[in-house]
Amino acid sequence: MSTHPERTEPTIVRTVAELKAAGRELLESAAAAGRTASLGLVPTMGALHEGHARLIAQARAENAVVVVTDFVNRLQFDDPADYERYPRVLEADLAVAGDAGADLVFVPEEREVYPDGRPRILLSAGTLGEKFEGASRPGHFDGMLTVVAKLLHYGMPDPATAAATGYRVYFGQKDAQQLAIVQRMVHDLDYPVEIRPVPIVRSAEGLALSSRNQFLSDAEAEAALVLSRSLFLMKERAEAHLPLAPDDALDMIASAPGVQLDYFEVVDPSTLEPLAFNCAETPFTGEALVLVAARIGSVRLIDNMPLRAD
Amino acid sequence: MSTHPERTEPTIVRTVAELKAAGRELLESAAAAGRTASLGLVPTMGALHEGHARLIAQARAENAVVVVTDFVNRLQFDDPADYERYPRVLEADLAVAGDAGADLVFVPEEREVYPDGRPRILLSAGTLGEKFEGASRPGHFDGMLTVVAKLLHYGMPDPATAAATGYRVYFGQKDAQQLAIVQRMVHDLDYPVEIRPVPIVRSAEGLALSSRNQFLSDAEAEAALVLSRSLFLMKERAEAHLPLAPDDALDMIASAPGVQLDYFEVVDPSTLEPLAFNCAETPFTGEALVLVAARIGSVRLIDNMPLRAD
C-alpha cells in the first residue's frame, strides 16, 4: 500500500453523517484509482503523542483511507473531575494526525455521540473489566467498550460503497487490557472488522511513551525505567526458554527508589487469567503477557510486554 | 419490490461463513438483475407460526434477499429446563419459512454461535431489561440482546459486495419489550441497520398468536380473549381522544374466569416508563403502548397495543 505522496491537512468532520459521506467518497476515489479500497480507523481521546502517531502511520501504510477519531468519552471516566481536566488540544492533535497521514479527523460534539445522554444499552466487559486497571475504576471498561462499539459502526464502510474491501481498527498495545477486551468484544459479538494491535513506542532508555511522562521529575523518570527493565528481563528469559522467575523482577522494582508497585502479573494474553504453569520453576514456552502498574511520586504508569517462545 | 415468482425450498446454511457467502451471491445476483440489492434478516428461535410467517412475508416484500435465522439461544433462558424443552421442529420451520418466501435459513450449531461457551462480553439492557418480562427472568434481555448483536453482524452485507443497498431486520410487535430494547440498542450503539416492526397477528376472535395458545383448553382460550378485548377498549378510547381510564380494562380482566393478571401498564413506547399524564382523567393524545401479561390456567400469555392519537 502506498504512503501519501504529499502531506496535506486532514479534513475535520464533526457529524456521523459527514464522516460516512467523506469516508465513502475517499473509498470510491481509491477504488476508481485502482487501489484496494480499505479503511483504517484509529480511535483516540486526543492529546496525541508519538505512540498515537505510530498507530496512525501503521493505518496509513495498510489502508487507502485513514480516519482518526478524537473524542473524550465521558462514559469511561469514573471520576467527573478527571474527565473535566482531560487535555483537549485539537490544534496540536490535527498536526500530529496530519503528519502521520490521517485523511479525516472525526471530532464530534458530545451530543452527536450521546444525543440522549447516557445510553440505556451498554456493553459489559464482565470480569475482564473488573481486574487490573478496572479494579480501581468501576465502569471504565464498560464505558470504553460502549464508545468503541459505536465508533466501529460509525467507521464501518457502507455496503453501498462499491468495492470497499477491508476495515481495520488500530489499538496500541500500551493499554493491553483495553486491547484484550476490545479483541474479545469483536470475537464474542462478531464485529466484521479486523483489530490491528500496534506495539508500544519507547524512549531510547525504554520508558513506554505516555502523556503522563511529562509529569515525572528527572529523578522519577530515571526510577521509572525499572518498569521496562523488569519487563525486558522477563522477555529475555522467555526467549531463552528459562523459567520466568518473576520474583527477580519484583526485587528489581522493590529496590528502585520511590516506585510503589500496584501489580506485576504474568497472564494469559486473551483471558488475562494467571498462567496455569509455575513461572518460578517451569521453563517458559507458549504465549503470555506481563502486566505492570506502579506509582512513581504522584504519577501512575502502566507498561506491559508480550512473551512468546515456541 | 417483487415477490418470488416461484416458491422454492429455502437453502439451509449452518455456518457464518456459508451464510455470508450465500448472502453475498444472492445480493450480487439481484444487483446483476437490476434489482435493489437489499437484505432482510428475520431472527427467530424456530417453532415458527403464522406470526413468524408474517415477518418473513414482509421481509420478502421489501427485500431482494431474505434470511431467516433459526437458533434457540441458550443465553436468554434463565431456566435450563425451559431451554431443554423449548420446541425444535426444523422440518416444520423450513416449510413455514419456505412458504413465506425465505431464501436462506441459518441453522447454526451452538458451537458456531458460542465457540467458547458463554461470551465474556455481553450487551446489557440495563433498567429496560429489569421490568415487565425481565422482572421474573434475570439476564433474559441481556442474553437476547447479545445474540441479536451477533446475528446483526452475521447478516450484515459485506462492503465488498457491490451494490448492497439496504439492511433491514424484522421483529414482531408481539414481544413489545424485546422490540423496544432492540430498537434502543440499534439507536444507542449506532448499528447500521433498519429495524422493521411487524404488527401482531390475531385469531378471528382477537387472540394474539403464540405457540403457547395450543396449551389452552377451549374454556381458557375463551377466557383469554379478555386480554385483547381490554386492549382494543384502550385503542378505541385513544383514537376517540377520550381518557384511557385503564381501571375499566382492569375490571374487565378481573371479571374473566381463571385469568390471573400479572401486569397491565400504559407506558412510553421507547422508554417503557409510565406515562407522565393522568390516564384516568386526561383526554389521550400522542403515543403510548399498553402492555398486558396474565396467567390463564398454567399458560402465561402476553399481549400489547400501540396507541396513537394526533
TrEMBL record, chains A, B:
Q: Which InterPro entries match?
A: Pantoate_ligase (IPR003721), Pantoate_ligase_C (IPR042176), Rossmann-like_a/b/a_fold (IPR014729)
Give yes or no: UniProt keyword ATP-binding: yes
Q: What is its EC number?
A: 6.3.2.1
Q: Which residues form the active site?
A: 52
The residues listed in the UniProt record as binding ATP, with positions renumbered to this chain, are 45-52, 172-175, 201, 209-212
Supply the alphabetized keyword list.
ATP-binding, Cytoplasm, Ligase, Nucleotide-binding, Pantothenate biosynthesis
| Domain of life the protein comes from | Bacteria
Can you tell me which residues bind (R)-pantoate?
A: 76, 178
Subcellular localization: Cytoplasm
> What function is annotated for this protein?
Catalyzes the condensation of pantoate with beta-alanine in an ATP-dependent reaction via a pantoyl-adenylate intermediate.
UniProt subunit comment: Homodimer.
Miscellaneous comment as given in the Swiss-Prot or TrEMBL entry:
The reaction proceeds by a bi uni uni bi ping pong mechanism.
Name used for this protein in its record = Pantothenate synthetase
